[in-house]
Specification:
364 residues, alpha+beta, Multidrug-efflux Transporter Regulator, Chain: A, Domain 2, Beta-Lactamase, 20% strand
């Protein structure tokens, strides 16, 4: 229900002039009619009345100032975090502290797969918890609604009308209450903030919901920017790495040229690729002949890794003679996914090797 200035003044026991001054300074939110008259939400009046105890206007002003301070301080803190991991921790700590809760999970929304992927989850002390597996939204209709309708929602285990799927998940984890707030950037939902209270059911005040929504908005923009920055940094690193690889291969050209043809050439190319790319291994083959080489690769980067970890981290890239004139193949095992331009560089090496290994007019 919307109240006029006079009605709001009577509710709070102040003059109409005071109400107009509060709305003009933003101390008391209001909307305006088509004719320009102020209208104040009844709920905002009730919140203000509780804050001032129907008599102490200073207490209400302090409550509003606290809200502004929280938003300003949060904005400054999030803007200063470029690293995604540090940013996620800052967001979680802000949310758990503000709402006096025990955990905060930050997840990314995959609209195409209709699932949520956990970016990070922290407890109120800043300890990171193991990431949960991605989960399908078809199993959690309320979560899907929060994401698609861009509205916050609260789930308490004692609420008989609460989403059974969410209640079951809370009970399984031994939690009592869940607040879900969408992360929105330029009208697009990119994820969700989930704040969990482990010990009590919660009925969040309008101010708490406003703050949670505002912080979620700041967090969404900060996460989006951090991801863009990380992608740009990876791209710059890939370009620098690619330049080093080209320089390394150029320096090895005389030795490769001196290897002649056949298995000697294949071995020289495999060795050059391993060294230039920092690969685990490379096998070069053409016309029934093959040769391989091993590099430091993942073993040098992670000497403590188990065989299972090395196998899980390895990435196989296969390049073939792009002309199709030969069956030349380069099979390169990298310690991580190839960077920008690396696959194209391997294709170039495959083409050059094929041209040398099988001259024009010869059979493969």
């Amino acid at each position: 229900m919307l109240l006029s200035v006079q009605q709001a003044a009577r509710r709070l026991g102040v003059s109409a002039v005071t109400i107009r001054r509060w709305t003009a300074t933003g101390f008391l939110p209001c909307t305006r009619t088509a004719g320009g008259h102020r209208r104040i939400d009844e709920h905002d009046i009730d919140d203000l009345a509780k804050a001032i105890g129907n008599s102490n206007h200073l207490a209400a002003q302090l409550a509003r100032e606290r809200e502004v301070d929280v938003l300003i301080n949060t904005s400054i803190a999030l803007a200063g975090k470029i690293d995604l991991t540090e940013l996620l921790l800052e967001i979680a700590m802000r949310m758990t502290s503000l709402l006096d809760c025990h955990f905060c999970a930050i997840s990314e929304y995959d609209a195409e797969a209709q699932e949520l992927v956990t970016l990070a989850e922290y407890d109120h002390a800043g300890r990171r918890l193991p990431d949960a597996s991605p989960y399908k939204l078809r199993d959690f209709p309320l979560t899907r609604s929060v994401l698609q309708e861009q509205t916050a929602a609260v789930v308490n285990v004692e609420d008989p009308d609460a989403d059974p799927a969410e209640v079951a998940e809370l009970r399984r984890e031994g939690d009592r209450s869940l607040l879900m707030v969408p992360l929105i950037v330029q009208g697009r939902t990119i994820g969700i903030l989930e704040v969990v209270d482990q010990k009590r059911s919660r009925q969040y005040s309008r101010q708490e919901r406003r703050l949670a929504g505002a912080i979620a908005g700041q967090a969404a923009v900060a996460i989006h920017n951090a991801k863009l920055f990380a992608a740009r940094r990876r791209s710059d690193e890939d370009v620098a790495s690619l330049r080093e690889m080209i320089a390394d291969l150029t320096a090895r050209l005389p030795a490769v040229s001196a290897a002649g043809r056949g298995s000697g050439l294949l071995a020289a190319v495999a060795g050059a690729v391993c060294e230039a790319f920092g690969a685990i291994s490379c096998v070069a083959s053409v016309g029934g002949e093959s040769a391989g080489a091993f590099g430091a690769g993942l073993l040098a980067a992670r000497p403590d890794a188990t065989n299972a970890e090395r196998g899980a981290s390895a990435s196989l890239v296969v390049s073939r003679d792009p002309s199709g004139r030969t069956d030349l193949t380069l099979a390169v095992t990298l310690g991580e996914p190839p960077g920008e331009g690396q696959v194209e560089l391997l294709d170039l090496i495959a083409a050059a090797t094929a041209a040398v290994a099988v001259p024009e007019g010869s059979a493969a």
